[in-house]
Predict the structure.
Amino acid sequence: MTTIVSLLSEEFPNVRAIVPPSYSYNVRFPVEGKNYKKIVPISHAVGVGTTDRLLFCIAADKSSLHDFDLVLRYNNSEQIQSETIELELFRSKLDPLL
């Protein structure tokens, strides 16, 4: 099962990337815990006036609930932060781990 979460800039609220993802990043969430951070190193350049889409694949060792904020940091000091995302992650025993 997959879902799409769009993170848009307030500067360009109506601009959406309609291109396929150019790269995907994997991240594994812990099954238990609170107030943890998962840092996904990204090395990606997007030219001025162009768009791109990145795919983040989230996995966990078993089914679990996660409330998190997604923060995209760019240009060393700027960032975009999502509203809280509520993820009900279902993991079938048949699913391979990332």
